[in-house]
Amino acid sequence: GETTATVTSSVDERADGGRALVTCRDPYPCDFWLGWFEGLGASFGRALTIGHRGAACKSMGKAECVYRLSW
Predict the structure, then answer these.
(1) What Cα–Cα distance (Å) separates residue 64 from each residue in 3, 4, 12, 41?
(2) Which end of the chain, N or C, is more open, meaning fewer C-beta atoms within 10 Å of its C-beta?
(3) Of residues 17 and 40, which shows the higher confidence score?
(4) Which residues fall within 8 angstroms of residue 69, CB to CB, at 6 or more apart?
């Protein structure tokens, strides 16, 4: 059977930058998303600061990972 994947985000854009909270509930490992976020920032010419809640992590057996991005 197929695995359902859900990615949700909330974004707060300001003149001096912005931030986003992204929740990934999917079969992809943390490193996949960390690399994807870095590439996304680079494609827009922005360096992202990426925070990852280790306690709420798929690598720890949880159902999702939560990332805090700022730029």
Answers:
(1) 13, 12, 22, 22
(2) N
(3) 40
(4) 19, 20, 21, 22, 37, 48, 49, 50, 51
What DSSP string runs through 10-24?
Answer: EEEEETTEEEEEEEE
Q: Which amino acid is at 6?
A: T
Q: Give pLDDT tens digits for 21-67.
A: 899 998 888 889 999 999 999 998 988 999 987 677 888 888 889 99
Q: What residue has token string 């909330």?
A: 10
DSSP-assigned letters across all residues of 27-44: SS-HHHHHHHHHHHHHHT
What is the pTM (predicted TM-score) of this model?
A: 0.80
C-alpha 60: how far from chain center: 16
